[in-house]
């Protein structure tokens, strides 16, 4: 039997840590990074990750720095 689990996750990360994590994977988003982490930690059929608040890409992070 397949089971569906929905969670809400919030975390804080340093600006340099986020830049390093996103730069390590070319054009990866925060949502994509979370999907990769979960998929590697446990065998799953489908992972859906969505950023509801905060930057999701390096470009969005850069625009926050300029504001």
3D structure, described in words:
- This protein has 67 residues and is mainly α.
- The chain has one domain (15-66).
- It is built from 3 helices and no strands.
- It has helices spanning 15-24, 30-41, 58-66.
- The model has no long low-confidence stretch (mean pLDDT 85).
Helix content: 40-55%
Number of helical regions: 3
| Radius of gyration from CA coordinates | 13 Å
Category by helix and strand content: mainly alpha
Question: Which structural traits does this protein have?
Answer:
single chain, about 70 residues, mainly alpha, elongated
Summarize the structure.
The protein is 46% helix and 0% strand.
SSE order and pairing:
Blueprint (H helix, E strand, L loop, with lengths): L14 H10 L5 H12 L16 H9 L1
